[in-house]
């Protein structure tokens, strides 16, 4: 059966929901744009990550409004947001929570679970690579399973639950880089670059005066989950599915072009294909379209694939990066 005629979807219903959602998402982008300047691609990719129901890792040098972006997203989307500053001495219990022994007035003792900051709908894991692997694993396991287990008792996380982690690409001393298997848990890697001249000029004028822009709430958690459900029901053409499969498989060592195969150390797994399948729908909806196109695949290939693969030492010695491999694969596959 063609992917365009999925039996569990009602095309008319999807169209009606999409038309309402497009207007709401326009208000969301406008509200974020009042506070975050010159980072349109970053905002778009962060929104796509959340609309797809996933987690993202933000990579950029200090001072590029990573924390401000997460705070703004939490406010505009109506989510309960919290922030954790990761440090080398941070323990898993500092994130997940712990049981404490309490004594009542009549002398009876009982354990009570005190929830950690992970019990939020939008969690900012600031400088996640500064925490120990043990703490990183505790967070990433909760991200995957959507619950934590303390003293044998299961505690479900709020819904929706999203993590936006940040990493500083410059400072490596005293850090514990995320292993590849854990990076794969993040739907997308969002690189944050310096703003252009006009955006930075606007930033200077609007953030150093007597009045600053105020963020307003546009959505709530239930509306966000409804949009996430709509994204997964949007139709995807067979041509787009084939393009996704061709692209992802072309950056695996055993299926890459001969001139590229010996430059790829390891490639993305099926989770990359799944991520592209969902995010191209979210990008289409964000742009006011009812079905994704090849342009969506091309636009999202880099942030979806770059943290899920690595080049060989020989390729690095020749000055070739993961991004170069992906761009070449895009040219050949799309």
TrEMBL record:
The lineage of its organism: Bacteria, Pseudomonadati, Pseudomonadota, Alphaproteobacteria, Hyphomicrobiales. PANTHER family: MAGNESIUM-CHELATASE SUBUNIT CHLD (PTHR42759:SF1), MOXR FAMILY PROTEIN (PTHR42759). Keywords: Hydrolase. Residues 55-188 form the ATPase AAA-3 domain. Residues 262-328 form the ChlI/MoxR AAA lid domain. This is MoxR-like ATPase. It comes from the Bacteria. GO terms for molecular function: hydrolase activity. Its EC number is 3.6.3.-. It comes from Rhodopseudomonas julia.
């Amino acid at each position: 059966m063609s992917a365009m005629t999925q039996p569990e979807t009602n095309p008319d219903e999807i169209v009606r929901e999409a038309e309402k959602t497009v207007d709401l998402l326009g208000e969301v982008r406008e509200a974020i744009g009042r506070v975050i300047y010159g980072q349109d691609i970053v905002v778009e990719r962060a929104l796509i990550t959340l609309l797809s129901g996933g987690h993202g890792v933000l990579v950029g040098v200090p001072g590029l409004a990573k924390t401000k972006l997460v705070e703004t997203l939490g406010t505009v989307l109506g989510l309960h947001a919290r922030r954790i500053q990761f440090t080398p001495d941070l323990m898993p219990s500092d994130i997940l929570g712990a049981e404490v022994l309490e004594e009542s007035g009549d002398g009876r003792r009982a354990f009570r679970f005190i929830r950690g900051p992970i019990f939020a709908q939008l969690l900012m894991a600031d400088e996640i690579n500064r925490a120990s692997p043990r703490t990183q694993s505790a967070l990433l396991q909760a991200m995957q399973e959507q619950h934590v287990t303390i003293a044998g008792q299961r505690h479900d996380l709020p819904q929706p639950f999203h993590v936006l982690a940040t990493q500083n690409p410059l400072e490596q001393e005293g850090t514990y880089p995320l292993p590849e298997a854990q990076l794969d848990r993040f739907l997308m890697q969002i690189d944050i670059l310096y703003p252009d001249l006009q955006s930075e000029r606007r930033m200077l004028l609007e953030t150093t005066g007597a009045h600053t822009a105020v963020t307003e709430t546009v959505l709530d958690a239930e509306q966000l989950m409804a949009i996430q459900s709509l994204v997964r029901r949007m139709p995807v053409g067979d041509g787009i599915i084939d393009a996704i499969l061709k692209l992802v498989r072309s950056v695996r060592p055993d299926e890459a072009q001969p001139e590229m195969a010996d430059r790829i150390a390891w490639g993305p797994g099926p989770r990359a294909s799944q991520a592209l399948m969902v995010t191209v729908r979210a990008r289409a909806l964000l742009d006011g379209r009812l079905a994704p196109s090849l342009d969506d695949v091309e636009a999202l290939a880099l942030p979806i694939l770059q943290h899920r693969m690595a080049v060989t030492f020989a390729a690095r010695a020749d000055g070739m990066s993961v991004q170069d491999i992906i761009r070449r694969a895009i040219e050949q596959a799309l």
